[in-house]
Task: inverse folding
């Protein structure tokens, strides 16, 4: 076969190279930095999204960075070190109260305190005077302890001692070595401690307090400049949550890997199954409840919290787009056989 129109070869070669490079670019995953504020059972959908290649399915190369404590995670987001936060939404609201909204809440995952106060058995009779560990001042564990103290008729600043210890692994070690007398824990740590002779002093699940404990946030700049990537992240997390609910074996495997334990995982799975919502859309009622919590435990912010516009710190449009995508329908309903 004869080759014709040799004069057009350079143009043809250029077109082929252009199309090839364009196709390669389309296949290249978008790098997404996800800052997570804790190692905990509540983060299992994130662990699933990594382990099961769900992020890759949505064209994402997710770089997960663990920063101990919600306060520091929020600072990282404000500083431009993250595209998305998987962290305490209350800390995002608190930051907005203090210095204006620089982050937007784009999804909610747990809308109450999934904590148990666990400690020395004698505190179950009289919690007064105990040393209670939490992560950082202004964190959900701090607020939970203050609300616990008030529920017992105690002044959290006078009748108990609240100590800043660090993340859940740090609090676990502090309790076991006697640095603190009690602390707040999620499962499976709570059940592990009970098996070692400690006692559940208070279970927040018996009377849940509305609070945006953990969810997803993003810097305003990321939402504006990387909206398709942030949307892909929310789609991945929507699928991961559905997988958690429908495949207990996969969820337990990822939970075990993420938490680096095989103990009391069934208790942790069941607890979180009861807390996870139908969809991860921002929960406006829980966001508003944070303001009520701040009014009670942060007198310095009480006046500002009563007039704060909660919608100024949330972006509902992203999850609206996710829910409107027909490809998401299989992950929004009940589990299929």
Result:
């Amino acid at each position: 076969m004869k080759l014709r129109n040799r004069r057009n070869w350079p143009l043809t070669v250029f077109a082929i190279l252009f199309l090839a490079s364009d196709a390669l670019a389309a296949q290249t995953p978008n790098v997404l930095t996800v800052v997570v504020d804790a190692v905990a059972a509540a983060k299992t959908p994130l662990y699933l999204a990594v382990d099961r290649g769900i992020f890759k399915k949505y064209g994402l190369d997710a770089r997960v960075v663990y920063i101990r404590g919600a306060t520091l995670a929020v600072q990282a987001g404000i500083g431009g070190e993250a595209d998305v936060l998987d962290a305490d939404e209350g800390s995002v609201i608190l930051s907005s109260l203090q210095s204006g909204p620089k982050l937007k809440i784009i999804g909610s995952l747990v809308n109450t305190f999934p904590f148990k106060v666990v400690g020395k058995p004698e505190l179950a009779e009289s919690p007064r005077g105990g040393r209670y560990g939490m992560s950082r001042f202004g964190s959900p564990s701090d607020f939970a302890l203050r609300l616990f103290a008030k529920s017992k008729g105690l002044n959290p600043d006078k009748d108990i001692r609240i100590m800043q210890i660090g993340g859940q692994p740090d609090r676990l070690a502090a309790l076991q070595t006697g640095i603190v007398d009690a602390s707040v824990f999620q499962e499976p740590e709570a059940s592990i401690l009970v098996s070692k002779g400690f006692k559940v002093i208070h279970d927040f699940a018996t009377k849940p307090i509305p609070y945006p404990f953990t969810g997803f946030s993003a810097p305003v700049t990321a939402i504006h400049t990387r909206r398709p990537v942030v949307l892909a992240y929310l789609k991945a997390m929507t699928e991961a949550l559905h997988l958690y609910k429908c495949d207990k074996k996969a969820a337990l495997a990822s939970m075990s890997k993420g938490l680096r334990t095989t103990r009391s995982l069934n208790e942790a799975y069941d607890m979180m199954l009861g807390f996870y919502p139908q969809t991860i859309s921002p929960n406006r009622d829980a966001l508003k409840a944070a303001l009520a919590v701040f009014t009670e435990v942060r007198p310095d912010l009480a006046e500002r919290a009563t007039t704060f516009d909660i919608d100024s710190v949330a972006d509902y449009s992203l999850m609206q787009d996710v829910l409107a995508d027909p490809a998401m329908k299989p992950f929004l309903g009940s589990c299929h056989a």
Remarks:
- The domain at 27-112+212-331 is CATH 3.40.190.10 (D-Maltodextrin-Binding Protein; domain 2).
- The longest strand covers residues 103-112.
